[in-house]
């Protein structure tokens, strides 16, 4: 009896198949020949797939297993193949098996109003490649709860918050699927389930549905607790999504936060020891430092460093690791600033609101079209109108100018922006002595506080045009 060996087809192949035969012309020999060919074909296909994976010509989702493999798989998810960095109905559902209407999904993904509707849960923009769909969920849209929640989120953006029958249908389906999963609570702890809940909460926060936001974020907190107690691995992307959606929902709806910037190790940030000069208080704030708390001064120093990074000539938006670091830097600033938005000090409250707006507009470009900057501009206007007498002294004139100009620059067209324009016109005439009708003087004062010509100039110049009309 002889042994025939199916040789490895590639150097990487390390398994052999031993086949016993009696002779080349026997019936058994012919069957073995077919078996050997089949085995060789399988090995060839496997070798081809390996080569394609190395060349990034295909993509296979890796299910994370033991903690020893978690870091390796996480690093692969940070920068997945270019082909899958943007969400496309054709790519995620090539065979038309999604639980939602794929053609409708494709139309929505092509609508400019819906491009950032999914943020901050996941991003479809190249700038936030480290937070793309696959980095967050490790899978496609086959989960019914997630797919319906995505459709609801996209539709709510397209309808500008006017929820029609189609919106409510997808919302109802998403909630129903989530309830089915929650019924078996351990099986509900997954990125898809948490992501679906976060997408619902994001829409509800923008609509001011505080009780619904509280309900959904409480569910997320319970799932987080279970994941910790049971040792269930969650991607860094979904943790980042939880943090940002929780923070944004708190700003918009007033809901209590369930996490902060120190909750997840993936978002932890500390000052860069190689650029100590970045972390300093701007001269405009230095004049009124006696009115600011020590904690707030530290935040302003970190915000000044973020401004320096934004102005730095080699600022690279395409580098996922740099963008993740900047995202963590911003998260630390905004998480701490949020605690000052309810401070009883009128001046500190105004400064924290304006600083929060600047922190968003410095580096969070995909979120610039969200409602938070204009929402906070409206809040700032109310604060300024209530405490106008606190800014009567000459030592506060430049601070008041900065507050008014930041609020007006990022206010949406309408009554709020018009009021900012009127206040700026009157104050430039009566209080801001030495400022002529040139915006260069205005911007010279702005730079004494938190201000970036690179990030703010285009919008700020538009406001100036409205003022001098």
TrEMBL record:
PANTHER family: TRANSCRIPTION FACTOR (ACR-2), PUTATIVE-RELATED-RELATED (PTHR37540), TRANSCRIPTION FACTOR DOMAIN-CONTAINING PROTEIN (PTHR37540:SF5). It comes from the Eukaryota. It comes from Trichoderma harzianum CBS 226.95. This is Transcription factor domain-containing protein.
């Amino acid at each position: 009896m002889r042994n025939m060996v199916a040789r490895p087809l590639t150097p990487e192949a390390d398994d052999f198949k031993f086949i016993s035969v009696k002779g080349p012309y026997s019936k058994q020999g012919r069957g073995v020949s077919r078996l050997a060919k089949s085995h060789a074909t399988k090995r060839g296909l496997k070798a081809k797939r390996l080569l394609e994976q190395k060349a990034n010509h295909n993509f296979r989702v890796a299910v994370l297993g033991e903690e020893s493999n978690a870091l390796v798989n996480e690093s692969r998810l940070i920068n997945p193949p270019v082909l899958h960095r943007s969400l496309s109905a054709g790519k995620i559902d090539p065979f038309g098996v999604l639980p939602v209407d794929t053609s409708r999904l494709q139309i929505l993904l092509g609508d400019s109003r819906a491009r950032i509707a999914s943020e901050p849960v996941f991003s479809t923009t190249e700038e936030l490649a480290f937070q793309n769909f696959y980095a967050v969920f490790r899978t496609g849209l086959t989960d019914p709860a997630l797919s319906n929640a995505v459709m609801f989120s996209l539709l709510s953006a397209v309808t500008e918050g006017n929820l029609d029958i189609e919106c409510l249908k997808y919302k109802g389906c998403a909630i129903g699927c989530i309830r089915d999963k929650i019924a078996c609570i351990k099986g509900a702890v997954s990125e898809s389930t948490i992501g679906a809940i976060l997408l619902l909460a994001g829409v509800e926060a923008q609509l001011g549905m505080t009780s619904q936001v509280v309900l959904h974020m409480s569910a997320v907190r319970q799932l987080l607790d279970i994941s910790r107690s049971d040792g269930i691995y969650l991607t860094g992307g979904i943790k980042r999504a939880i943090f940002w959606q929780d923070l944004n929902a708190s700003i918009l709806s007033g809901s209590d936060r369930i996490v902060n910037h120190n909750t997840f190790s993936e978002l932890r940030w500390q000052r860069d020891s190689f650029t100590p000069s970045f972390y300093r208080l701007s001269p405009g704030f230095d004049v009124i430092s006696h009115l600011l708390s020590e904690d707030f001064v530290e935040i302003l120093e970190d915000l000044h460093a973020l401004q320096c990074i934004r102005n730095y000539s080699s600022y690279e938006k395409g580098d996922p690791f740099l963008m993740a670091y900047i995202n963590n830097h911003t998260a630390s600033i905004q998480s701490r600033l949020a605690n000052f938005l309810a401070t009883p000090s009128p001046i500190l409250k105004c400064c924290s609101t304006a600083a929060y707006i600047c922190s968003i507009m410095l580096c969070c470009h995909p979120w610039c079209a969200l409602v938070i900057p204009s929402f906070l501009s409206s809040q700032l206007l109310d604060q300024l109108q209530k405490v106008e007498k606190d800014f009567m002294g000459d030592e506060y004139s430049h601070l008041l100018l900065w507050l008014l100009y930041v609020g007006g620059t990022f206010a949406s067209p309408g009554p709020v922006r018009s009021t900012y324009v009127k206040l700026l016109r009157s104050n430039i005439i009566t209080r801001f002595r030495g400022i002529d009708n040139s915006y260069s003087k205005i911007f010279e004062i702005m730079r004494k506080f938190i201000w970036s010509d690179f990030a703010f100039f285009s919008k700020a110049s538009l406001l100036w045009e409205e003022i001098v009309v």
